[in-house]
Design brief:
- The protein is built from nine helices and ten strands.
- It is an alpha/beta fold.
- The protein has a single domain, classed as Rossmann fold (3-Layer(aba) Sandwich).
- Helix 3 runs parallel beside helix 5 and helix 5 runs parallel beside helix 6.
- It is globular, with a radius of gyration of 17 Å.
Length: 244
């Protein structure tokens, strides 16, 4: 288990009396990017919410593995406790405080590590240098791509070992989407493991190391991301025919 950062086993979760996830399992290898794709309604975002403590887990296991082999069981923990253990999440919506400046957003993100805020800020701005010139701007004045970058940076300020991203390219223009995926690579280069859900399946798999396909709340396919991009069944069912 030395190379495993996160393990999810036989996860069941949902809303009201209905399960959305029916025994989903996955693992994130330390330092890797793992993509979760699938059609609308397959349970992708529900999976992330359950992992991060935003949705009660009805059955199954979610475990975080530290580098010293300490195992943290996350199933009954609230989000702030999960953040303190080294996981942070960037939701699809409401991922910044619009009435605050970029600097203030980063300061809030760094509250869990306030004693070493300056060092972490320098590390984050090295990975996302464009934010350095925007520190005094109100987040509400930023473009969609800049807000997404700020959302990434704010989550990184807690110095997570694992970052969870829920559709980071949603609502962005194609050129901006490409920039966001490049930023995710930059974040990963800091040694941060990434678990991401994306509708832009092909682009997501292109930057990922491993991929999972969910369908109707269950595991449908999995494998090395680059192999999945070339897999005829994955292409036919989930990626579509690429236009030339």
């Amino acid at each position: 288990m030395n190379d495993v950062a996160l393990m999810v086993c036989d996860l069941h979760a949902g809303y009201g009396g209905e399960d959305v996830l029916h025994g989903v399992s996955l693992r994130v290898t330390r330092g890797s990017i793992v993509a979760v794709i699938g059609p609308n309604g397959s349970g992708k975002s529900t999976l992330l919410k359950a992992i991060y403590g935003l949705l009660p887990i009805r059955q199954g296991r979610v475990a975080l593995f530290d580098t010293d082999r300490t195992v943290h069981e996350l199933a009954a923990l609230p989000p702030h406790r999960i953040t303190a253990l080294g996981i942070n999440m960037v939701p699809q919506l409401a991922n910044v405080f619009p009435d605050m400046s970029v600097q203030e957003n980063l300061e809030i993100g760094g509250l869990p590590i306030r004693h070493r805020f300056n060092g972490q800020l320098e590390k984050v701005l090295t990975a996302l240098p464009q934010l350095g010139a925007m520190l005094r701007k109100r987040a509400a004045t930023l473009s969609g791509g800049q807000r997404q970058m700020l959302g990434l940076a704010r989550a990184l300020m807690s110095d997570p070992s694992l970052l969870i991203l829920d559709e980071p390219s949603a609502g962005l223009a194609p050129m901006v989407q490409n920039d966001v995926f490049a930023k995710i690579r930059a974040v990963n280069s800091l040694g941060v493991s990434v678990l991401m859900v994306e509708q832009k399946a092909r682009q997501c798999l292109t930057i990922a190391d491993y991929g999972y396909v969910l369908e109707q709340g269950r595991n449908r396919l999995e494998g090395p991301a680059q192999s999945m991009v070339q897999d005829p069944e994955v292409v036919r069912l989930y990626l579509g025919v690429r236009r030339t």
